[in-house]
Amino acid sequence: MDAAGEELADRVRALLSGADGLEERRMFGTRAFLLDGRILVGARPGGTLLVRVEEESGVTLATRAGVALAVMGTRTMGTGWLDVANSVLIDDGELMFWVDVARENAQQPG
């Protein structure tokens, strides 16, 4: 993981500190943050935030500036996985928006 990814992981960790059921793991070159075993977000190289969202919400959220469907290797993921560019995550308020979107998804059944 590069310095930008590590810095993002530190910011996410600080925002989620104290959350019950939170776990942090290295997965697929990403520092993933899981809640009750489900991926919420991941800090990726370059300071990109991987966000797990409801697929319906993902269609709309992917139209925002600096947001795209996540790519893993050569595979573009479905609308339930978004990459948010580091340039969008300048302040913690914007980062918290994306963490909250992921939390809403994690609370959905299934």
Secondary-structure class: alpha+beta
Q: Taking all residues together, what is the mean pLDDT?
A: 89
* Broad CATH class: Alpha Beta
And the CATH topology? Aspartate Aminotransferase, domain 1
Distance between the termini: 31 Å
CATH A-level architecture: Alpha-Beta Complex
Taken in chain order, the helices and strands follow as HEEEEHEEEEH
Shape: globular
Tell me the total number of β-strands: 8
Low-pLDDT segments: none
Quaternary form? single chain
Largest sheet: 6 strands, antiparallel
Instruction: Tell me the number of helical segments per DSSP (H or I, 4 or more residues long).
Output: 3
How many discrete domains? 1
CA-based gyration radius: 13 Å
Strand content: 25-35%
- Helical proportion? 25-40%
Query: What spatial order of strands do you see in the largest sheet?
Result: 1-2-3-4-8-5
In words, what does this structure look like?
- 33% of the residues lie in helices and 32% in strands.
- The protein is globular and about 30 Å long.
- The mean pLDDT is 89.
- The protein is built from three helices and eight strands.
- A hairpin with a 3-residue loop joins β3 and β4 (48-52).
- It is α+β, with helices and mostly antiparallel strands.
- It has a single domain (3-106), classed as Aspartate Aminotransferase, domain 1.
